[in-house]
Specification:
8 helices; two-stranded antiparallel sheet
Length: 238
């Protein structure tokens, strides 16, 4: 391949990596929503984002490399990537609905209410309480957080990077392995950086929002955001 061809491929990889990520709310909204509900630090939020993003890209890279090794054309590999898309999208929607239902139950159980009490001496008083404990044990919170992260990671591994396959096949067809590695690295890095930038902006934006009495429903709202991001992909075809 010529230098001009490699340059054009690299610029295309940068463009597709950033646009593909920015147009898909499923690439960043789930992380921002879960971080807001779980009150994750920015460091943890970005670590989870990068891990899921890397799994997302690498799953498509592996499929592309298998296609290259088998001598398959783009037309033979692309249907496999396209078949993974609805699986990942509906998995995200299902995860969001399940998480949101749990969050709604948690919010309702955490609602504080008043019980009146009348003593034998005629003195009455009332006290306020919630059905959830006033605090959560650290290991219980960590366990719940890990489950959500692992489920999200699995969803992202299932999700394809459709624009990557043609980019891989072009240099592979000319046996330009250095160009193939460069294009893969540029696409992956651009995707991860775009995810990190948008998630960071949302982390600060959502963190500044005070929900007041609705704060106890933050997990339910996060689940709804996950499901809506998946539905956006289905309805808009992005």
């Amino acid at each position: 391949m010529t230098t001009e061809s490699i340059t054009a491929l690299v610029l295309t990889a940068m463009f597709l990596g950033s646009v593909h990520t920015a147009l898909g709310p499923d690439h960043y909204l789930p992380f921002a929503a879960l971080a807001r509900a779980g009150r994750w630090s920015l460091g943890k939020t970005l670590a989870v984002t990068m891990a899921c993003g890397l799994g997302h890209v690498m799953s498509s890279v592996l499929i592309g490399l298998v296609g290259v090794a088998a001598g398959l054309a783009v037309a033979a590999v692309t249907p496999l990537e396209e078949a993974r898309a609805p699986i990942a999208t509906w998995a995200l929607i299902g995860f969001g609905l399940t998480y949101g239902t749990w969050g709604l139950w948690r919010g309702i159980k955490g609602r504080r209410h008043v019980h009146p009490h009348v003593h034998d001496d005629g003195i009455s008083h009332s006290h306020e309480h919630a059905h959830l404990k006033g605090h959560a044990h650290p290991h219980e919170k960590a366990a719940g957080s890990k489950k959500a992260v692992w489920l999200l990671f699995i969803v992202f591994v299932l999700g394809p990077c459709e624009p990557l396959i043609p980019l891989l096949m072009f240099p592979a067809a000319t046996h330009s392995w250095a160009a193939l590695a460069l294009v893969t690295a540029v696409f992956g890095l651009t995707t991860l950086l775009t995810m990190a930038a948008i998630v960071t902006a949302l982390w600060f934006g959502l963190g500044a929002i005070r929900l007041g009495p609705l704060e106890r429903y933050s997990h339910a709202l996060a689940g709804g955001a996950l499901a809506l991001s998946g539905l956006a992909v289905v309805t808009l075809g992005i």
